[in-house]
Amino acid sequence: MTPHFSEWEDRVRKLARRFPYPPAPDLRGRIPRPEGRRPRGRRWTWVAGAFGAFMLALGILLASPARAGLLEFLQIGAVRIRLQPLPTPSKPAATPSPASEAIPETRMPGILDLAGETTLEAAQARVPFPIRLPTYPPDLGRPDHVYLQGMGGPAVILVWRDPMRPDRIRLALFEIGPGALIEKITPQVLTATTVRGRPALWAEGPYLLQTRSGRWELRRLVEGHVLLWTEGEVTYRLETDLGMEEAVRIAGSLSAP
Amino acid sequence: MDREHRAHPPEGLDEPLWEEVIRQHQEPVFRLLYLMLGDAEEAADAAQETFLRAFRAWDRRDPNRPLRPWLLRIAANLARNRRRAIGRYWRALQRWIQLQRPASGTRDELLETVVRQEEAERLWQAIRRLGLVDQETIYLRYFLELSEAEIAQIQQVAIGTVKSRLHRALHRLRAVVEREFPDLIDRP
Asked: pLDDT, tens digit, for every residue of A216-251?
């Protein structure tokens, strides 16, 4: 090792020792203990400390019948979950927003009635985030339908049909970019879970899904269940009639961005 | 999902021992994750996950080997998996720079502290220009001050490989610093 190199190594070592770390959090209260309580049922499986306060509030809300009146809604990424019914449901309107000319918007009486059907490659060229596909179940393959949607921001909806019953949807995955907003109203059951260690919500239907962009809004009945989570600036919404554990497994299998 | 986070008590691990394991190792684990991820909240989150994974894998570790390299290996693997989102580091760095302020001391001491921290911070920026293996090797050797043998355990390579990696990483770092942060070389 040359003197020149050795000097540089000493310099790096000296600078590294001055590095101002933020204080390390005390993790002892956050990690399960050997005698610790096991999670009860499907609730309280949180591991994401950064979301601790949100989790606590959510736990109170989910556990208590007194949730009404505490908060009007919870929000995870682009999806807002109303905890109270809307006072006066209005009829669906179908007037497209002028601001959404670039990407088509549509009423959603059913997923397969969506406008904006395109190919995976064309959709990828139009949205500013990588479209990710589930690698589980292994037989899933590429989606049967790809829709490009404007929901106040770019969104892609991937739909897989049930091979045994082609009229039936096996899986629908919404990948929703920044700026979009979906409102989901009063699910029957709302459960906290995680996807790859990140907070996620599991909502069991049926419930009314409302999508809004400016003055335009639409509603449709969702009969399946929905898993919601975010990664980076993208919100993922997996709609399925499978159970929560299977949905979480599918969510955890999304290909790398 | 529940299955992943249940607190099955591993063999030979009682609560006082587990608390002591966390207490002793949480700081180096957090620091490595902070250096690799560039965000304190995300590092805390990943540190928590590191210990959760360690808890679940406790029975599978080699009890004859020291704990710290084993824990840091789990942490480094986690950090590599989390570092996919481009731009996350820069946003975090900007937030971090805005938050860093010396806590107390005289004016001169404060100024000196600021200068030193800024230098270390710029070195960190230079390191972040390198490849992941170079970064990790530098963090483990010079920031966490681990021995080459410990790094070999973490990276699961021979000690000779660690030496080569260090040598190459420092050369590459020197090139980055000469090009983008030349004042870091000149100051005593």
From this structure: 344 454 567 888 888 877 889 898 878 888 999 999
Query: With an 8 Å Cβ cutoff, is B60 touching chain A?
Result: no
Q: What is the ipTM of this complex?
A: 0.76
Q: Say if residue B61's pLDDT is above 50.
A: yes
**Residue A161 predicted with pLDDT over 50:** yes
Query: CB-CB: which of B6, B49, B120 is closest to A16?
Result: B120
Exposed, middle or buried, A202 (CB in 10 Å: 0-12/13-18/19+)?
buried
Domain with CATH 1.10.10.10 in chain B: 104-188
Q: For residue B130, what are its two tokens? A: 């390198």
The neighbour count for residue A12, using CB atoms within 10 Å, is 23
φ and ψ at residue A178, rounded to 5 degrees? -60, 145
Closest CB to B1: pick one of A1, A5, A245.
Answer: A245
Which residues have CB under 8 Å from B18's CB, separation 6+?
Answer: A31, A33, A34, B55
- First-to-last C-alpha distance (Å) of chain A: 41
Phi and psi at A109, nearest 5°, equal -65, -25
Query: Closest-CA residue in chain A for B174?
Result: A8
State how far the Cα of B72 lies from the Cα of B51, in Å rounded to an integer: 10
> Angle at the Cα of A227 (from A222 to A228), degrees rounded to 5?
105
Select from 3.30.360.20, 1.20.1740.10, 1.10.10.10, 1.10.3720.10 the CATH code of B104-188: 1.10.10.10
Contact B52 A27 (CB under 8 A): no
pLDDT, tens digit, 9 for 90 and up, residues B16-25: 778 888 888 9
Least confident interval from A25-29, A139-143, B66-70:
A25-29
Domain boundaries, position A236: 103-179+218-252
**From CA A156, how far away is CA A72, in angstroms rounded?**
28
- Which CATH code of 3.30.450.40, 1.10.1740.10, 3.40.50.720, 2.60.40.10 fits the domain covering B10-99? 1.10.1740.10
How many domains are there within chain A?
A: 1
Mean pLDDT of A121-139: 91
